[in-house]
């Protein structure tokens, strides 16, 4: 990138485990890179489980630091990034060190804005930043929501995942109310991504209808229901091979579905950007005196 504009920052966020957040984050980054040959994409793994490391076959000896070091030890993001593909870089989570972030900053004023502040000098090197989020709606999740411009919410076709979508919406609304006086807002919800969808199952079609009714009733903060990601065994096979879906199975339905998702997201972002401007949260974070040296 030759100018100083921010990249498009998209978080994959949901208060529910097992909904394919990591798979979606990596596949979305893969599709954006494959369909935009000049684009640079950064994947931020903010989940303590560090599954991005596993999917890319990154050795533990190469996985020191990560987001936890950036947040807690003021490590420069450029020092902990890993190039995993010509167009794709990764910053790992730091694993269990992520717990220390919650303990260290939970009582600080505006601690939800730390990630924005730390990433701002670095993220201009990228066209897209894709964030894999933990299933807990915690302080790191709040930081993700305040740093990202947009979010997509994966949801498997079951009742508990729909509840997870509703909890995520409630979480974002609380953040919006908390920062309203400062003219800041969390990421805008682009929509819900139904994952592991099987049209042969009546339950799947019922859940899809329920999600669409939520969107039609404006219960998704203006978000839409994206076309579902069909269940595809090739996704797991590619993961075992430590390959991206575009590398292992470029003609499979999973590749087709995630490519469509990436295209729809880009079109939606372009439309939103043409009609609105979101305040940049990272301009406003001022560390408390006790944290001044560490930040």
Characterization of this structure:
The structure is a single chain. By secondary structure, this protein is an alpha/beta fold. It has a single domain (8-274), classed as Rossmann fold, CATH 3.40.50. Helix content is 44%, strand content 14%. The chain has an eight-stranded mixed β-sheet, with helices on both faces. Strand 7, helix 9 and strand 8 form a beta-alpha-beta unit. Residues 279-295 have low confidence and may be disordered.
Spans of 5+ residues with little confidence (pLDDT < 50)? 279-295
How many extended strands? 8
Relevant CATH superfamily: P-loop containing nucleotide triphosphate hydrolases
Widest beta sheet: strand line-up: 3-4-2-5-1-6-7-8
* Helix percent band: 40-55%
Cα radius of gyration in angstroms: 18 Å
The fold-level CATH name is Rossmann fold
Number of self-contained structural domains: 1
Strand content: 5-15%
Round the mean pLDDT to the nearest integer and report it: 89
SSE pattern, N- to C-terminal: EHEHHHEEHHEHEHEHEHHH
Give a short account of the largest sheet.
8 strands, mixed
Question: How far from one another are the termini?
Answer: 27 Å
- The CATH level-2 architecture is identified as 3-Layer(aba) Sandwich
What overall geometry do the principal axes of the alpha carbons give? Answer: globular
